[in-house]
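User: Here's a structure from my thesis project, written as structure tokens. My advisor, Dr. K., wants to see whether a designed sequence matches the one we expressed. Can you design one independently, without my sequence as a hint?
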């Protein structure tokens, strides 16, 4: 009985040790699994965050690319006459504005409606006879051999002025030589002369169809700037219009 009872006690003791060992093993396994899960979750979160940042960077890059393309499109969409003005050589640009100032130095305005009719008529004479923008001999269609003057219909004057200005109000009655019966102006047109000494300062793009051109006018030795003029001009594919001409004097 003693041996038998002693064996039973020993078996119970061994079983209790085995159970404790199994329980400990299970607990360790569970802790290891939880740690692995957390690490996996953290790794996954990091990957997602990285992916999100990559997508965000990609979006920014795409937006920047679109902005550049848009800017390029605006640059390339200038009207043909504006492209011609931008590509005109510095020398030819200076010559152009020297001619304008020789013929109509008093053409300064911020609103074309306020330009005097006498100044507008002088511009008409210059642009059709001396600017080079019309074919040689263009004005001969108005020439009167008997009077040796040009007999220009007011409607023709209006058509030319409206090509270069917005909203001008040309009053032919203010022009010497106007004939109310024929509605024409009999006058000399050509014969401009003189000298100007210009230097192009800048050609600034205001918008896709507008330029601001600044020119300095010097003394005949090119030592001192006497005055500057800034021409704001709006372009189409076939013509241009002066929006304003501003002057700064230094004498």
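Assistant: Designed independently from the structure alone:
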């Amino acid at each position: 009985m003693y041996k038998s009872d002693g064996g039973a006690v020993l078996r119970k003791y061994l079983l209790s040790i085995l159970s404790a060992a199994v329980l400990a093993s299970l607990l360790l396994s569970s802790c290891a699994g939880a740690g692995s899960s957390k690490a996996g979750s953290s790794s996954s979160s990091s990957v997602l965050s990285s992916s999100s940042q990559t997508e965000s960077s990609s979006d920014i890059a795409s937006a920047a690319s679109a902005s550049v393309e848009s800017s390029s499109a605006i640059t390339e969409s200038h009207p043909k006459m504006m492209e011609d003005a931008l590509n005109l050589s510095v020398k030819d640009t200076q010559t152009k504005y020297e001619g304008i100032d020789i013929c109509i130095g008093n053409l300064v305005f911020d609103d074309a409606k306020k330009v005097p009719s006498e100044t507008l008529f002088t511009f008409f004479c210059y642009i059709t006879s001396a600017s080079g923008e019309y074919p040689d001999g263009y004005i001969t269609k108005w020439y009167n051999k008997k009077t040796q003057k040009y007999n220009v219909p007011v409607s023709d004057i209006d058509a030319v002025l409206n090509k270069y200005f917005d909203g001008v109000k040309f009053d032919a009655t203010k022009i010497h030589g106007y004939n109310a019966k024929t509605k024409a102006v009999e006058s000399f047109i050509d014969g401009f002369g003189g000298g100007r000494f210009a230097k192009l300062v800048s050609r600034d793009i205001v918008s896709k169809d507008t330029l601001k051109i600044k020119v300095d006018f010097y003394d005949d030795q090119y030592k001192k700037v006497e005055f500057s003029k800034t021409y704001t001009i709006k372009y189409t594919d076939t013509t241009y219009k002066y929006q304003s001409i501003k002057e700064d004097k230094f004498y």
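When you compare it with your expressed construct, this may help: The helical segments are 2-76, 80-87, 90-103, 117-129, 154-164.
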